[in-house]
Here is the input.
Amino acid sequence: MLRAFAALRESLPDVSLVIAGRRTDSNYAAKISRLLDKGGLGADVVIAERISDSEMEVLYQESALTVMCSLQEGLGLAAVEAMSWGSPVVTTDVDGLREVVHHEENGLLVPPRNPSALAGAILRLMTDSELMAKVRANARQTVRDKFDEEMMVSKTLKVYHDVIARQNHASGVGAGS
Here is the structure.
């Protein structure tokens, strides 16, 4: 992200970056600090490690977009949260995120470990107001359609019931024995 951000500043000199979330790996934290110093990015990057849920909601709402450049994700909950608050997302094309984000429909996907593609996707979204509006609207609709709490609970319970029914059927329980 920091390499992409450095490239973005050439086209969008007023762009700023907020890195939200704890850095639990001290080697990773040191690497981020070195990159910030080396690239002269420190003045335009805010690291918000201790951020409450309500502060995160405000950040999603006030940000032009949300970027997730993960190498792996189980579900991509941060992408779902961002989309629910109307923040368009640019994410890496990895399992978990590609189940949430559909390229050019409700966000943009880029190959992992590709800062130039990431910068290009961010720039494209930031400069194409029509695409930005489409992605924003579709992102909210995706969350309503696929990640509604009541619907997710219902689908999860259905999976549990189906598994139990298959186990019972396989063991002969309830088969009139």
User: Anything to note?
Assistant: The chain has seven helices and five strands.
